[in-house]
Amino acid sequence: MIDMESRVMSSLRLVGAFVILVSLFQTGSAQASCSKIYSGQTFTECRPLNTFGATLAWTLHEVNHTIDFAFNEDAGSLAGWVGWGINPTGGLMPGTQALVAFWDANRTNVIVREYDLTVDVAYRPETPLFPANNLSVLYTDTRVEAAGTVVTILSTLHLTPNQSVTLNHVWNRGFRVVLATLSPGGHHLTSENRASRVKINMVTGGFTSVSDGERVKNAHGIINVISWGMLMPIGVMIARYLRPLPKADPLWFHLHRACQTSAYVLGVVGFGLGLKLQTYAPVLLYSKHRNIGVVIFVLATLQVLALVLRPHKDTKPWRRYWNIYHHTIGYTTILLIVINNITGIDILDPGKRFRIAYIAFVAFLVAVAAILEAISWRRWWIMRKKLKIEVPSSI
Ligand SMILES: *[C@@H]1O[C@H](CO)[C@@H](O)[C@H](O)[C@H]1NC(C)=O
Ligand SMILES: *[C@@H]1O[C@H](CO)[C@@H](O)[C@H](O)[C@H]1NC(C)=O
Ligand SMILES: *[C@@H]1O[C@H](CO)[C@@H](O)[C@H](O)[C@H]1NC(C)=O
Ligand SMILES: *[C@@H]1O[C@H](CO)[C@@H](O)[C@H](O)[C@H]1NC(C)=O
């Protein structure tokens, strides 16, 4: 029991370490400079934002509950667009009341319009985005300037009397606009595009550069790849290839059980974070990933229970049936885990090298398994031959 407890504790410490690692990684960036002067107007505050070299300058007027803003970002090309807005309903893109700027057909004048980024616009790329005139946020005196491909959107936001001064800012940039309908196209979905949001306390300037959702997402990814994706297959290999060795007899079992229970404990934390992630997305986008995850969780839980409920070695034929059951569920679970981890990495999109690294890890395990498999078969073959020779002689 103490053994189990200390194992749980060390698993939890491991989780803590990862969360810290992830947050260090997240807050280390964005120390670029920012300007407080735009278009001849001087602002009292400014912040470099965490993506695309964007910056935000502002002045809060407590007397009339207004905030003057200057948002600055490089569109990358004269055919693209730059957008920024306040989301009064949450930290993500859906619900953002946006100001989007782009060039006219002659690429000489920059235009800015208001847009309501609904759930449909956010999650159904085929939904066209048209200018809106009934935003839930009041912007006045909106104007735009450009120098090369760098755009500055200036505006005044009118806070409602009891609105919090901590505001969710969401911005992005895209690469095409349908000028006939003033309809900006979608943007890429790189991790930079998805990290383009920040919650800023407009009074103190304090900010959280990555939303809780993003932190949970990263922790979910890292923990699940390590627990389900790495520890569990290693635990399976320990059982399969150590067990036949006569000297490794109770050892393989203890290693297998230790590996699988700590992977399971850690994995349950990762699974819980995955469920928590659903509360950040208004539309469940990744239902397939979620469903496979639930199946894996159920199967793995059955495996842990099976460990407790296993019949004694000598109770034939039950032990044989139990073995077949335990192995079938085990291999199925591992297969599902590999599939779901790869789709999960694709969803998180932390960069190609992570996908390649995980696939390389799996390939390495498969190669090691193939070699060990060959060795085991050979040993089995030799044993059989020996037995065949020995059996008649013993009669
Ligand atoms: C709000 O008050 C400030 C400071 O008095 C002033 O400069 C600004 O023009 C006012 N804004 C609006 C929209 O009335
Ligand atoms: C683009 O330039 C042409 C010729 O200079 C002009 O006739 C046209 O009105 C301009 N279009 C816009 C949208 O400014
Ligand atoms: C603006 O009006 C459109 C059409 O009536 C509606 O679908 C949309 O929800 C409204 N947006 C806001 C922010 O009220
Ligand atoms: C103040 O906030 C409450 C909810 O917190 C909301 O129902 C109400 O409409 C707000 N009042 C104004 C004037 O915005």
Automatic annotation (TrEMBL):
<keyword id="KW-0472">Membrane</keyword>
<dbReference type="GO" id="GO:0016020">
    <property type="term" value="C:membrane"/>
</dbReference>
<feature type="transmembrane region" description="Helical">
    <location>
        <begin position="221"/>
        <end position="242"/>
    </location>
</feature>
<dbReference type="Pfam" id="PF03188">
    <property type="entry name" value="Cytochrom_B561"/>
</dbReference>
<keyword id="KW-0732">Signal</keyword>
<protein>
    <recommendedName>
        <fullName>Cytochrome b561 and DOMON domain-containing protein</fullName>
    </recommendedName>
</protein>
<keyword id="KW-0813">Transport</keyword>
<feature type="domain" description="DOMON">
    <location>
        <begin position="52"/>
        <end position="174"/>
    </location>
</feature>
<dbReference type="Pfam" id="PF04526">
    <property type="entry name" value="DUF568"/>
</dbReference>
<keyword id="KW-0479">Metal-binding</keyword>
<dbReference type="InterPro" id="IPR005018">
    <property type="entry name" value="DOMON_domain"/>
</dbReference>
<dbReference type="InterPro" id="IPR045265">
    <property type="entry name" value="AIR12_DOMON"/>
</dbReference>
<feature type="binding site" description="axial binding residue">
    <location>
        <position position="326"/>
    </location>
    <ligand>
        <name>heme b</name>
    </ligand>
</feature>
<feature type="transmembrane region" description="Helical">
    <location>
        <begin position="321"/>
        <end position="344"/>
    </location>
</feature>
<dbReference type="GO" id="GO:0046872">
    <property type="term" value="F:metal ion binding"/>
</dbReference>
<feature type="binding site" description="axial binding residue">
    <location>
        <position position="256"/>
    </location>
    <ligand>
        <name>heme b</name>
    </ligand>
</feature>
<dbReference type="InterPro" id="IPR017214">
    <property type="entry name" value="UCP037471"/>
</dbReference>
<keyword id="KW-0408">Iron</keyword>
<feature type="binding site" description="axial binding residue">
    <location>
        <position position="220"/>
    </location>
    <ligand>
        <name>heme b</name>
    </ligand>
</feature>
<keyword id="KW-0812">Transmembrane</keyword>
<keyword id="KW-1133">Transmembrane helix</keyword>
<keyword id="KW-0249">Electron transport</keyword>
<feature type="domain" description="Cytochrome b561">
    <location>
        <begin position="184"/>
        <end position="382"/>
    </location>
</feature>
<feature type="signal peptide">
    <location>
        <begin position="1"/>
        <end position="30"/>
    </location>
</feature>
<feature type="binding site" description="axial binding residue">
    <location>
        <position position="289"/>
    </location>
    <ligand>
        <name>heme b</name>
    </ligand>
</feature>
<feature type="transmembrane region" description="Helical">
    <location>
        <begin position="263"/>
        <end position="286"/>
    </location>
</feature>
<dbReference type="InterPro" id="IPR006593">
    <property type="entry name" value="Cyt_b561/ferric_Rdtase_TM"/>
</dbReference>
<feature type="transmembrane region" description="Helical">
    <location>
        <begin position="356"/>
        <end position="377"/>
    </location>
</feature>
<feature type="transmembrane region" description="Helical">
    <location>
        <begin position="292"/>
        <end position="309"/>
    </location>
</feature>
